[in-house]
Amino acid sequence: MTDTVCYSVEGKGADFCAPEPLVRLLPWVENPNGLVSLLKMIEVLAADLTASLIWAQTFATTIGIRPDYRGGVVGDEKYFGSMAGGFETLAAHLRKLDLVRQAKSAEELAEYMRTKLRHPEESSVQQLLGLIVHDLEGVHFLPLPVSKAAYYKPQKPLFGEKVSEQFPGCQYDISEAGACYALGRTTGCVFHLMRVLEIGLQVFAARFNVPADHTNWHNIIEGIEKAIRNMGSDPNRPSDWKDQQEFFSQAASSFMVMKDAWRNYTAHARGKYTEDEAEALFRTVRSFMQRLGTRLHE
How confident is the model at residue 11 (pLDDT cuts 50, 70, 90)? Predict the structure, then answer.
């Protein structure tokens, strides 16, 4: 909570408590692009900014209803220093939110009281508060359902440890696919999943010495399938070549199905995917890459 310093003006009936600034970053500044809980938002904004705004409103109201206060010298340097500190605290909170114009106005009010030892006009404070309320409407936060948080900020790799180890080049797009799904950008999610598959396909092609640079998926997959069919005629074939042939034949067929079902439409901007479709494809690609990782790696 924000600490306060209070000062009473003898014989004037004034008793103000000015909040002292706390040195801490806003959670979304301290952890850029990370998740911020609703509780943390409440703690920071309600305890700090809201308390400071309420103090400023109370201050404005008081000097407005007491004519003998308005513009008059009602205290000493210590008193006005305390009141100036309240506006400096408000300015600090406003700067954290990038409300620079309002922060500067609050600092000007503080400077006025420190140098003039007088209260500002009530209208000056009310005008500042009006600007703050207006511009706070432009500061937006996007709520993330609890069920989606694990996709945006997973505690473990979204495709599992094995895929992370076997296909490190996929991790960026796996992470982005999860973030897109969590934020409702479902077509973007599918786009990144196709990039994950593309890396898997390149690794698959390398296993059979099939060129994969600047070649469309269809040609790559056909080249892989041809190499798989020829495994039996290779004099250096491994002893378990039939088992490998079956595994890789199924993998190649799966790549061809995914190419026809999703990749072509996504790559050529024809496909648009719902949340259910993206979630289903996410599970499908994860399962496929996990299986691929049992035999292949980058």
Answer: very low
